Amino acid sequence: MENMVGDWTLVPELTTGHDEFAEAVGMSDEEREMTRNFSYTFHLSRDGDEWRMKIDIAKMGTLMDTKFKTGVPFTYMSPDQVTKLTDVITVRNGHLMEKMTSEKGGLIRQWDVDTYREGDFLVVVQTKDGKSKTQKLRHQ
After folding, report:
1. Cβ(20)–Cβ(36) under 8 Å?
2. What backbone torsions phi and psi does residue 30 show, to the nearest 5 degrees?
3. What span, in angstroms and rounded, lies between the C-alpha atoms of 3 and 43?
4. Can you tell me the distance from the alpha carbon of 35 to that of 25, in angstroms, rounded to the nearest whole number?
5. What are φ and ψ of residue 36, in 5° steps?
6. Alpha carbon distance 129, 122 (integer Å)
7. 12-21, pLDDT tens digit by residue?
8. What does the CA dihedral 10, 14, 19, 20 come to, rounded to 10 degrees?
9. How confident is the model over 50-66, as pLDDT tens digits?
10. pLDDT, tens digit, 9 for 90 and up, residues 64-106
């Protein structure tokens, strides 16, 4: 997993499955369109058993900047500043495995995120009910 430490920038044209995944997690048409063209930078660093994850969305600012320990839940707000996101990250076979939960208006949704290194890319696969969105990020 050390091979994922650093700064990574999304390559938008390599994203697949956005609409199918957005529908599976119950995004409105407006949310789906808003997130379709997100461009972001992902930062991952480590200090002992504590990790730091930061996501900066172009033209919007920092989505999250948090320190975490594997297996310990942490919470942050989505870009709409209404939806609460809770994340639990574990490490398995060199992959960051996340269990994401969103809470908005009393509605709770859950999905999985698998992040791993593949050649020159960091690959992020979000899956809900068999529908996946795959994004590739290039090291800066």
Report:
1. no
2. -65, -45
3. 12
4. 13
5. -55, -40
6. 23
7. 999 999 999 9
8. -110
9. 999 999 998 888 888 99
10. 899 999 999 999 988 778 889 999 999 999 999 999 999 998 9
Instruction: Report the distance separating Cα 51 and Cα 90, nearest Å.
Output: 11
pLDDT band at 37 (very low <50, low <70, confident <90, very high): confident
Select the CATH number that applies to the domain covering 2-139 from these four: 2.40.128.20, 2.50.20.10, 3.30.930.10, 1.10.60.10.
2.40.128.20
Q: Which residue shows structure tokens 């172009």? A: 58
Phi-psi region of 55 (alpha: psi -120 to 50; beta: other; left: phi over 0): beta
C-beta of residue 63 within 8 angstroms of C-beta of residue 112: no
Q: Residue 86 and residue 101: Cα distance in Å, rounded? A: 5
d(CA 77, CA 84): 5
